[in-house]
Amino acid sequence: MITHLLSAADLDRDTATLLLDTARQLGAALSGREVKKLPTLRGRTVVNLFYEDSTRTRVSFEAAAKRLSADVVNFSAKGSSVSKGESLKDTAWTLQAMGADAVVIRHPASGAPHRLAQWVDGSVLNAGDGTHEHPTQALLDAYTMRERMGRLEGLRVAIVGDVLHSRVARSNVLLLRTLGAEVTLVAPPTLLPVGVESWPAKVSYDFDEMLPKTDVVMMLRVQRERMTDSFFPSVREYSRRYGLDVRRAAMLPEHGLVMHPGPMVRGMEIAPEVADSPRSAIVEQVANGVLVRMAALYLLLSGEKGTAE
What we know:
Number of helices: 11
Radius of gyration: 19 Å
Strand order of the largest sheet: 7-6-5-8-9
Strand content: 5-15%
Number of strands: 9
Distance between the termini: 19 Å
């Protein structure tokens, strides 16, 4: 088992499958308990080190650690020594002195989790670094697809929208290809990164043309807070070309699945009627995120590869 979870590229097929299988086992173990907690990581300390605002991911990791009976320390950059100029390395030494067994880090700088892993003895889990990666999001997306579709091998997945600024897109492309899915990136040319042709994915600019032959469509949030230029003419134009409205949803195969990593911009990236439809797995993604992050913490900190009891 790997020591850290920094990138989806670090996961081979066996390790990724082990993580997904363990998440399912943990879910089954919790469902049979009146108190939704397992004693697996009692006595371990998990630190949530967030340099960027996040509710969904931070709370998901916190819930995952607490359901495994770990002690959780939430560290926010705002109002901390970081706001006074403390470096990441100094913060790492502080966490090391506190005896942190695992550090979950979200940071605006790509590569920050990799640097942190060099400075602490505990496991480091990347909860999103810049525009680089978000591996646990990719794992929970893969888990959701497998639970709903029954397989990942051969699934045709379209990832649509702001690929340029999306760490979710990069991690999903890497992981889904490892697990045998076929991935196509759908976006305007201005929202595709330089070098995208080297990614293990196809590229299309025609959303309508892709939909009838897509098993899973994953919409991405337009990250306007990361944009310094005008990447498309207007919100209306973007929605017309790349928004998933009711008309487009009807073009999907009958079994087609709709996903979104959240938070959603309803009416721009996705119509409310589509987001709330039976073919949407968006709420399931949130619930599955806790199970997948439990599995990651369990496997990294327990040092075991067996079934959780």
